[in-house]
């Protein structure tokens, strides 16, 4: 059966709308564009172009997965972060737009160190896809980063992303339980650690709960477990005058600040995300 690009897009969109998928139009477009190797411009300029049978079958399969609750970027296998296309895998969190706030907070610090000393060493704790470290390295040519994770799968994905972006020479994936295998000192330590309280995981949106890896979400009984470890270990791995910047849950500002203050840090900056929620804290050691 002959199907045009416009018809395929229309059917995919309609099926997702009928199922009550919130971003039905966008999801349909992302899936169809990727699986038919077309662009938005093709859909506008050449809507009557015929789509090959294999691409139609691939779109049908992808729409069925979306209808079963799988997030669109898991189906695609990649997600854009800070303008970079990052591959995903089973044990990586999907990088979120809110985490770009962390990159934006850290970027001036990295640029200042690089301008002053010609280099900047970054430690990204819980690197996942490598999102934060790779965004910083992509922007600051003099920077280098160690990306730490406890998951072999995540580290393999981060290394692949670094290679795809031409950043392998400045990105070192390291398997470590937070600081356990880390030696040396860094100018900036950055982390988006797991910060959901264990008891709250069951009530997360199914797309998060069922598809993001639990190890990337679960912050222990009070959600603060990783912050305690990072705050306790950071001083021993920071250059004098260095910074630690962390992403936080929207209600965790006071608690996380207290954890770092108890370890001798002072709050240098707090930022909100695009939804005006507290999202990033930057700490310094006087
Ligand atoms: C919230 S995800 C953040 C991923 C990525 N940095 C991002 O922002 O998209 C937290 C990451 O911490 C890693 N992680 C969890 N426990 C860890 C541990 N004990 N040591 C090192 N990394 C850990 C997880 O595997 C996951 O990749």
TrEMBL record:
Residues in coiled coil: none
GO biological process, one term: methylation
Residues involved in S-adenosyl-L-methionine binding: 126-130, 149, 178, 192
Pfam families the UniProt entry points to: MTS, PrmC_N
GO MF terms held by the record: peptide chain release factor N(5)-glutamine methyltransferase activity
UniProt domain Methyltransferase small: residue ranges: 109-197
PROSITE patterns linked to this entry: N6_MTASE
InterPro entries for this protein: DNA_methylase_N6_adenine_CS, HemK-like, N5-glutamine_MTase, PrmC_N, RF_methyltr_PrmC, SAM-dependent_MTases_sf, Small_mtfrase_dom
EC number per UniProt: 2.1.1.297
Keyword set, alphabetical order: Methyltransferase, S-adenosyl-L-methionine, Transferase
Binding-site list for substrate: 192-195
Reactions catalysed, as given in the entry: L-glutaminyl-[peptide chain release factor] + S-adenosyl-L-methionine = N(5)-methyl-L-glutaminyl-[peptide chain release factor] + S-adenosyl-L-homocysteine + H(+)
Domain Release factor glutamine methyltransferase N-terminal: 7-77
HAMAP family: RF_methyltr_PrmC
Record function comment: Methylates the class 1 translation termination release factors RF1/PrfA and RF2/PrfB on the glutamine residue of the universally conserved GGQ motif.
Family of the protein in this entry: Belongs to the protein N5-glutamine methyltransferase family. PrmC subfamily.
Protein name (database record): Release factor glutamine methyltransferase
């Amino acid at each position: 059966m002959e199907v045009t690009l416009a018809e395929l897009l229309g059917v995919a969109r309609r099926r997702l709308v009928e199922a009550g998928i919130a971003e039905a139009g966008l999801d349909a477009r992302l899936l169809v564009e990727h699986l038919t190797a077309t662009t938005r411009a093709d859909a506008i300029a050449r809507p009557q172009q015929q789509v090959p049978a294999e691409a139609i079958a691939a779109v049908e399969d992808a729409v069925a997965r979306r209808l079963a609750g799988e997030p669109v970027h898991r189906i695609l296998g990649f997600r854009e972060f800070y303008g970079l296309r990052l591959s995903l895998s089973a044990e990586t969190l999907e990088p979120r737009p809110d985490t770009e706030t962390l990159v934006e907070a850290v970027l001036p610090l990295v640029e200042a160190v690089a301008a002053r000393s010609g280099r900047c060493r970054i430690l990204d704790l819980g690197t996942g896809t490598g999102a934060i470290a790779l965004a910083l390295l992509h922007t600051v040519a003099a920077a280098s980063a160690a990306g730490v994770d406890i998951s072999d799968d995540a580290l393999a994905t981060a290394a692949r992303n670094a290679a795809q972006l031409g950043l392998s020479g400045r990105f070192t994936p390291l398997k470590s339980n937070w600081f356990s295998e880390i030696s040396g000192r860094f100018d900036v330590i950055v982390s988006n650690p797991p910060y959901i309280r264990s008891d709250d995981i069951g009530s997360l949106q199914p797309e998060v709960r069922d598809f993001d890896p639990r190890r990337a979400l679960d912050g222990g009984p009070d959600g603060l477990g990783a912050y305690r470890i990072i705050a306790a270990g950071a001083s021993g791995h920071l250059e004098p005058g260095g910074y630690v910047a962390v992403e936080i849950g929207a209600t965790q500002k006071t608690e996380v600040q207290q954890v770092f203050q108890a370890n001798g840090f002072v709050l240098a900056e707090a930022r909100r995300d695009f939804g005006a929620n507290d999202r990033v804290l930057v700490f310094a050691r006087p």
